[in-house]
């Protein structure tokens, strides 16, 4: 039975440019070595050190927010490129939308500047991007989610404690736009208590490079306006519009100084053994 205190972090290999992350459930009740082993097993490595986003070896895991990054080292010092800027802002984003609209392709185009042509259904994967927007370093953790209806019971977990959402549809498929309404309603319900200090939501019309377009710019923009979101047209195939979309999210989050959902600090765990 899972410990009720467990929460999700994202484990990365300790490299200068981390990209693929593994979602891992940890508990602040666990000793440090157990957290290190759990993260190492998820990454398929034999880790010896664990670092937080500031490049420090944590003495306590009780105050780490949901969605934070932990970096696993084989014994070497912290290597992540953002380590020189310990004040770098960190945000957690989530990709939502129906199956096969290109959520993974959009994410990987942004993170790795590559195009994933073959559709490989995703349950959930975290990606890391250290971005420089207007000269300021920002660390992004991006949760890529499944669009298949079988996984819809996981939506509440996916949308919890996030700073921003990208609602993705395919301009080739009108119903994929209609399905975004349900995702947006879930977000509104979860963050209703935060009002205009809630997460940033944008709508992305993907596959604008396609010759089989059936959803017009005006239709996509009308939907986005209706839910109070910015609208972007993008192509995972050629990268058009993707950097601008994520940069816009970062700029708005900085302006709002958003914290996604209230994080309860777990001071009562700090005295637990971390040996």
Automatic annotation (TrEMBL):
GO cellular component, one term: membrane
GO biological process: intracellular signal transduction
Mitochondrion found in the keyword field: no
Highest taxon of the lineage: Eukaryota
Keyword Nucleotide-binding assigned: yes
Keywords, ordered alphabetically: GTP-binding, Nucleotide-binding
Spans through the membrane: none
Pfam families noted in UniProt: Ras
GO molecular function: GTP binding; GTPase activity
InterPro entries, sorted: Doublecortin_dom_sf (IPR036572), P-loop_NTPase (IPR027417), Small_GTP-bd (IPR005225), Small_GTPase (IPR001806), Small_GTPase_Ras-type (IPR020849)
Protein name: KHA domain-containing protein
Species: Stentor coeruleus
């Amino acid at each position: 039975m899972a410990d009720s205190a467990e929460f999700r972090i994202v484990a990365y290999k300790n490299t200068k440019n981390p990209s693929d992350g593994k979602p891992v459930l940890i508990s602040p009740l666990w000793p440090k070595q157990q957290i290190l082993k759990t993260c190492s097993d998820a990454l398929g490595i034999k880790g010896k050190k664990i670092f937080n986003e500031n490049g420090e070896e944590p003495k306590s895991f009780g105050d780490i927010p949901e969605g934070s990054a932990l970096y696993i080292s084989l014994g070497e010092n912290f290597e992540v490129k953002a380590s020189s800027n310990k004040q770098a802002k960190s945000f957690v984003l989530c990709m939502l939308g129906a199956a096969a609209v290109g959520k993974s392709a959009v994410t990987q185009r942004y993170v790795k500047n590559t195009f994933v042509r073959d559709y490989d259904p995703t349950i959930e994967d975290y990606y890391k991007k250290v971005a420089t927007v207007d000269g300021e370093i920002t660390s992004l953790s991006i949760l890529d989610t499944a669009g298949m209806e079988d996984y819809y019971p996981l939506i509440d977990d996916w949308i919890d404690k996030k700073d921003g959402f990208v609602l993705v549809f395919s301009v080739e498929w009108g119903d994929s736009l209609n399905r975004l309404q349900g995702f947006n309603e879930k977000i509104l319900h979860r963050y209703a208590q935060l009002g205009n200090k809630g997460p940033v939501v944008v709508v992305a019309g993907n596959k604008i490079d396609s010759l089989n377009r059936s959803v017009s710019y005006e239709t996509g923009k009308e939907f986005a306006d209706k839910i109070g979101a910015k609208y972007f047209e993008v192509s995972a195939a050629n990268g058009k519009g993707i950097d601008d979309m994520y940069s816009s999210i970062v700029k708005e989050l900085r302006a709002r100084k958003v914290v996604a959902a209230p994080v309860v600090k777990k001071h009562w765990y700090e005295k637990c053994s971390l040996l």
